[in-house]
Design goal:
single chain, 561 residues, alpha+beta, eight-stranded mixed sheet, five-stranded mixed sheet, 20 helices, 45% helix, globular
Length: 561
Amino acid sequence: MLSLEELQKAPEKPGVYLFKRGNKPIYIGKAKNLRDRLLQHYKLAEKDSKEKAIIENSTSVEWVITRNTFEALTLEVDLIQLHKPRYNVLHKYGGGYPLLLLTDEPYPTVRVVRGTEHRGQLFGPFFSTSKAKKVKRLIHRVFKLRTCDPIPERKEPCMDYHLGLCSGPCCGLIDKESYRLSVKSAIALLSGEVSEVLEELYQKIEEEMQRLNFERCAMLRDQIQALENLSKGQRVSGLEYGNADILYAMGRVLGVFLIRSGRLVDKQVFVLEREEDLEEFLLGFYYTSPLPQNLLVNFELSEETLWWLSQRGNFELRRDISPELEELIRENLGHHLDPVVLREEFHRVLRIPMPERIEGFDISHFYGEYTVGSCVVWEMGSMNKRAYRRYRIKSFEGIDDYRALEEVLSRRARRLKEGEEKMPDLWLIDGGYGQLSVAIRVRDKFSLPIKVYALAKEEEILISEERKEVRLTQHPILYRVFGLIRDEAHRFALTYNRKLRLKEGLKDTLDKVKGIGEVKKRLIYRNFENLYEFLKADEGTLRRLGISPTLKQEVERYLKG
């Protein structure tokens, strides 16, 4: 653990400091005055669990003096991206957000990558890996870009060719010109600029029809439909340009909206630790993500930050956000509730300061099986989906909601105690007095500085740990907050429970049906997410996958008993 004397040795100059455990940095920060900032960390450790964890887990502290605060900022971002320290929440995903890379090769393919140092054309970012992978699968299914990477030399195509996921360039089953058109179509889908390639696709399909190449015609038809559906998609009103990132700040709440081809394709809401972290976030975001053609912000950027961005790529900075678009953004940020009114309502009805962070919990099971728990997070007026967590119950089997809740809360409390997650002000438990008692017991066991409330379902009564009851239907402003958190915790737990049931139900059923070997199982697992999708598939689809329709009939007979 670091001593106060060690921190007092720091100079009163701008720079970057590194809290280290052994040789590994666990937290990296910047400061206008290194000594003042390090002493601030020491003082905050008395009441903040994260600061306490940083001080207690550090064996040394180092610093690098810079000429000014902007140099400190850029050096901090560089070091965080290099070391990925445990307690740097803002950049803890280190390598950046997932991107799709269209490779620079004679027969290009798509890869999910991170960072911008790659040969080829980048598209994104995506705010989740699952989204990037879904788009990648779509590219293979619709445009048949090769799935093998690197491309091998084969005499016979692999299974992906027979599954309709690849056009077989490794075996010479497609000529370069046709493959080039598929690549161009994939670029049109990813960029949203479809008009030019559609004309070429229509011309190509006419040529293939004259050659009676109906299989090729069907593939081109699917590509045309995919691109036409994209062109008919919902455009964002108030935008005169197609490609833009919008960064919109409301206090510590920052919304990032990705506009591609005039459409909102993704959004994410962040809650910063301090309003001063805006430029730090922006540098961290574009450290590993490509700059768009247009960057819209509603806050001032320093000349140094603008210079740094100009070194990353060409872009145009805009501040002309229309009133209509601004209203849409503010609704997405979840700030339709007036913070002043909300703060007054917490004080008037509950006699507590308005919490900055609330964690909501719920338990879900299916007749005692697939028992799971959820933790959702409300911060500064909106749900922070990035902070959601889900739990599979491990300590027992059967029906025992109290025991399941105790396991979930205990696992959560350990992470909070160790400073791995930000400490909330309040826990909201879905349930009544029994669930409330469990939460209080866990809270006290781990000595967490958290208030605990429970929200009973049917009567919508909020219960405090002092056993005070508040009928939320009589207080609509608070009902919108607590009802939203409770409903979101329930939805998140139920979604996870259903996902487990569908996934494991498919496997369990196939294991019990005679005539389905390991190869067929893998084919079914790969192409169908659940049993329902497999059973509703038509015979033509199954045959194209190499699956006999009689296998589906066997499964149906088994389910009917």
